[in-house]
Specification:
The chain is an alpha/beta fold. The protein is built from eleven helices and 17 strands. It has helices at 17-28, 42-51, 64-68, 85-94, 109-121, 136-145, 167-172, 184-188, 190-200, 308-326, 333-353, and strands at 8-13, 32-38, 59-61, 75-78, 98-101, 126-128, 154-164, 208-211, 216-217, 223-232, 237-244, 246-257, 260-264, 275-282, 298-303, 359-361, 366-367. Residues 140-262 form the GFO/IDH/MocA-like oxidoreductase domain.
Length: 368
C-alpha cells in the first residue's frame, strides 16, 4: 500500500492566520487530506475556504462540536487561543481525534497534563505544531552536535525569537490579551527558544532556571519581552534566551561545544522552503599574532522536497496511520518534548512572577 492511499483526514479547528499555512501543508503532504474546517461561525469558515481556495469537498462547519462529530475527521489541527486548548483538546480526545496542537500548548503544565491524559486514555497521537523539528536540517545539526570529536561537549547555548509588532498587533492581537494568550511573548516566541535549547540538551531538564530582570509587559500585564538563563549542573552547561514582540526579527540558535560551534539564523522559519543552511566550525584557533583564524565557518546546506510544515504533517499522519491501521501505540516522543518545554516555560514565568528568583527544576513540579 503506497503512502498516499487512505490518507489521514484532517479537520482544522479555528481559522487563525497560521491555519492557512497548515492547510497548505496538509495539501502538500502525500498521506493527508483536509476534510473539514470549523469556526465559531459558518461565515468565517466560508471566508477561510474562499481565501485558501479549498476544494468543494472540504466540509465547512459553524461550530467546533459539529466537526468533531464528523467520522471522516481522523485528526484535528487546533490553532485556537491558548486559553481554549484544554477544553477543546479534551473534547476532541474524547471523540477519538488525534491532536496536532498549536504552541504554546497550555498556560501551565497542569493543563497540559489534563490534555495529555485525555489523549493517552484514548490511544491518540499528540504533537505540538513546532514545525522546525521536522526539517532535515534539524537532524543534520543534531548529528554534528553529537559528534564528540568534531563538536565536543555542549557548553553554551543561546537562542532568540523576536519580531517587532505593529501598533495594531500590540493593541489587538490575541497574543497580547490576558484572557486569550496570557503568556504573551514568552509563550509565542519563547516556546521556540526553550524548545531549541532543550533539543540541544536531548530534552534533559536544566537544574536551575532564572529569568533576568528585564521583563517588559503591556498595560494588561502580558509579557512583551523577556530573557532567561538555564543551567545544567552535571554538564556545566549554560543557556540563555531572548524573546520579544518589540525587537527586530530574529530566529537565532547558537551552540558552542568544547571543540566546535554551530550557528543558524533562521531555525524557526528557513529563509527558503527547499533548502536551509547553517554554519559549523570545528577546531578553530587564532593564527600567529592573533591576526586571523586558522579555519572559517563551513556553510552546510540541507535540501528538502517538502517545506517543513509539510514534513510535520507527513510525520504526524504516518504516526496516526500506524495507530489506526496497524494497531501501533502512539509515539510518546512528541508529548515528552512538549511537556519538558512547558515545564521550563512555567519555571521562567514563575521566576518572573517571584521577583526573578532562581527556580530549581524537578521532573514533576516546580519549586521556588
Amino acid at each position: 500500500m503506497t503512502e498516499n492511499q487512505n490518507p489521514i483526514g484532517f479537520g482544522i479547528m479555528g481559522c487563525a492566520e497560521i491555519a492557512r499555512k497548515v492547510s497548505r501543508a496538509i495539501h502538500l503532504a502525500p498521506n493527508a487530506t483536509l476534510v473539514a474546517v470549523a469556526s465559531r461561525s459558518i461565515h468565517k469558515a466560508k471566508q477561510f475556504a474562499i481565501k485558501n481556495k479549498l476544494s468543494d469537498n472540504v466540509k465547512l462547519y459553524g461550530s467546533y462540536d459539529e466537526m468533531l462529530d464528523d467520522p471522516l475527521v481522523d485528526a484535528v489541527y487546533m490553532p485556537l487561543p491558548t486559553s481554549l486548548h484544554v477544553k477543546w483538546a479534551v473534547i476532541a480526545a474524547r471523540k477519538g481525534k488525534h491532536l496536532l496542537l498549536e504552541k504554546p500548548t497550555a498556560l501551565d503544565v497542569k493543563m497540559f497534563d489534563e490534555m495529555l491524559k485525555a489523549c493517552e486514555s484514548n490511544q491518540l497521537q499528540f504533537m505540538d505544531a513546532s514545525m522546525w523539528y521536522h526539517h532535515p536540517r534539524t537532524a543534520k545539526m543534531k548529528e554534528l552536535i553529537l559528534n564528540l570529536e568534531l563538536f565536543g561537549h555542549v557548553k553554551v547555548i543561546h537562542s532568540s525569537s523576536s519580531y517587532h509588532g505593529t501598533t495594531q498587533f500590540l493593541e489587538n492581537d490575541i497574543r497580547v490579551k490576558p484572557d486569550l494568550d496570557a503568556l504573551g511573548a514568552l509563550g509565542d516566541a519563547g516556546w521556540y527558544c526553550i524548545g531549541a535549547i532543550l533539543w540541544t540538551m536531548n530534552q534533559k531538564l536544566p537544574t536551575t532556571v532564572a529569568a533576568l530582570p528585564s521583563t517588559i509587559r503591556n498595560s494588561a500585564g502580558v509579557i512583551l519581552s523577556c530573557n532567561a538563563s538555564l543551567y545544567w549542573d552535571e554538564e556545566e552547561t549554560v543557556a540563555t534566551f531572548y524573546c520579544s514582540f518589540i525587537s527586530h526579527e530574529t530566529m537565532d540558535l547558537s551552540v558552542c561545544g568544547s571543540n566546535g560551534s554551530l550557528h543558524v539564523e533562521d531555525f524557526i522559519i528557513p529563509y527558503e522552503e527547499n533548502c536551509a543552511t547553517f554554519s559549523f566550525t570545528s577546531g578553530a584557533k587564532f593564527v600567529d599574532m592573533h591576526i586571523g583564524w586558522n579555519v572559517k565557518p563551513q556553510e552546510v546546506q540541507v535540501a528538502t522536497q517538502l517545506p517543513q510544515e509539510g514534513m510535520m504533517i507527513q510525520e504526524f499522519s504516518r504516526l496516526v496511520k500506524g495507530i489506526k491501521d496497524l494497531g501501533l501505540q502512539p509515539d510518546t516522543k512528541w508529548a515528552e518534548t512538549s511537556r519538558v518545554t512547558q515545564l521550563v516555560l512555567d519555571a521562567v514565568k514563575n521566576s518572573i512572577d517571584n521577583g526573578y528568583k532562581a527556580i530549581q527544576m524537578y521532573t514533576t513540579k516546580l519549586d521556588v
